[in-house]
Amino acid sequence: MQVHLLYPDREWKGTQRYFDYKSIIADLGLEVLFRTAAREQLKQEGAIQKILEADAYLENAMRQVMMVPLENSAQICYRQDILKDFLENEELIRELYAFASETLALWDRLGRRQNEKNNIRDAGVNLVTDVYLLRLFTTRLHMLKELLERHQQTFHSQGLCCLLEGLQQDFSPEMEEQLNQILEDISFYVDKEADPFERRNKKIIKKAYIMLQCEISQGLKFGSFKLEEVETLGKKYKRHKHKRTLMQKYLGAFASSPSMLLKEDILLAETMQLEYQIVHYLTSCCDSFLYGCREFFDELCFQTAFYRGALNLLHRLERHQLAYCYPSVGAQQNLKFRELKDFGMAIEQLTNPVGNASDIRGKRLLVVTGANQGGKSTFLRSIGLAQVMMQCGLFVAAESFESGIFPAFFTHFTRREDSEMNSGRLDEELGRMNQIIENLGERSLVLLNESFATTTEKEGSVIAYDIVKAMTEAGVKVLTVTHLLSFAKRVYEEGSAGAEFLSAERLPDGRRTFKMIQHAPELTSFGLDLYEQMVGETGKGADVLI
Fold first, then answer.
1. DSSP H or E segment with residue 340
2. Residue 520 and which of 78, 89, 224, 406 are 20 to 30 A apart at CA?
3. pTM for the whole thing?
4. What is the rounded CA–CA span in Å between residue 533 and residue 273?
C-alpha cells in the first residue's frame, strides 16, 4: 500500500532538502508561514470566529516539505491537482488528516513511540500487542476505504484516484475477510472486552476452555484423543455425535463450564507455550501486512498534513484579500509575474502590500538599485518566497507567476553582527558565499541582498562584480539588490544582453511608491530624502549647528 500524495512514484522518505535551507528560512522570513499553516481559522457565515492553537505536527510537515524542491513541472502539476481537489472539497482533507492523526494517536497508545517491543521482555505481552495492532490496522483501513469512497465523486486528481484504487486492490474484500478470520481464530488469546490501550490490560490473557475425550491405557497413559468442546469469548463449539447417558447429563448440569485441571506446573507451562506458538504463528503470517501498515499510516498523516497546512495558508491569503494563482513553469532565463506580493509581510504587518509586475525574458542577471526604503528587499524576498512555494507545489500570492525550476536555490542576505560571529562581518559574508559557490549546480538560482555592503563601496563593488560575473558565465541565475553603485554602473556600461536593471520608483517629491520599474542604475540612494523626512520637520524654526 502506498500513499503517493506528494510524488507520483515514491513516498516522502529519502528526499533531499535545499543545501542551506536554514539561510533560506531566515532570509525569506518563512517561519511566519510555517506558524500560519499550523493554525486553523474557524469561520461562521464567512466571518472568522476563532483561531485554534497551533498544531506542531502541521508546522513541522510544512517546514520539511517546503524545503524540498520538486524536480520538474510534472511533479509540480501533480501536487497542484491534488491541492485543487482538496480546496474544492475542504471536508475531505479535514477528515483525512483528522483520521490519520487519530490512527497515529491510537497506535502511540499501543507503544509506537516508546518502542515497547524492544523494552518488554515478556513475549506474551508483545504478542498481545501485535494482536491488538493487527485489529487496529484492519479496522482503520476499512474505515479509510469507506471515507474515500464516500467522497469519490468529488476528486479527479491522479494522486487521490490512485490512493483509492491502491486501497481497493491491496486491501480487497477477500484480504479483509482473511484478516478478520485470523483475528477470530486467535480471539481466545486476548480479551475483547478489555481496553487494549491500557498498559495493565496487555497482561490480561483470557484462555479458552478445551475439552478432550481420550482413552486411558495401561500405566494410566492417554490415547486416541478427540476434541469434544471449545469455548471462546465469542463462540462455543460442541461435538454432539454421540448420545450422553442420563448420568452424564446429570453430572454435566452441575459443571459450571468444561475444563481440564492441570496440576503439574510443567504440563501447564507446556500448554501455555503451545497456545503462544499457535497465535505467534498466525500473527507472523501477517508480518508483511503489519510492516506495510506502519509505513502507510505514517506517510498518510505526514502527507495529508502538508495539504491541511496549505488550506490554512489559503484562508490567510483570503483574510488579507490577496490574489493567488497556481504558478507555471517556464524557461530558466524567464521571470514573469503580475501583482506579486510579499505574503510574509502581509501576515506580519496585517496589511495588503504593494504588488509588483515584471516580464524578464532571456536574462540571467537582475540588478535592482534605487532609493533607500523603496521596497527593494521586499521585492526580492517576494520573488524568493514565490519561487520556494512554486517548487513545492503550492500557490503563489500573485495574479500570475512564471519561472524556471531551480533545485539549487541559495540566498545571501546581509546580516546584523551578533555575538555568535567569530570574525568580522565581511569574513562572515565571504564564508557563506564560498559555501554557495562550492555547491552550485546546473540549475542554480542565487538571491543577493545588499551583499558585501559591510566594507567600503569600492572594495565591495570589486568583490561583487567578480563573483556575479563568474556565476553568470557559469550559467547561474543571479538576482541582486545592491547599493554598490560602482558595481551596478560597471555591469550596465558593459551592455550585457543577459542583464536586466530595475530601480525602486521615486516620485519628484521624494515619495516612494514601492514599485520596481525598468531603469538604469541610480547613482544615488537618495539618503537625503530620509534625512529630511526624519529631521527636517523637527528642525523647522530651530538653529542647526553643523
1. strand 335-340
2. 406
3. 0.82
4. 88
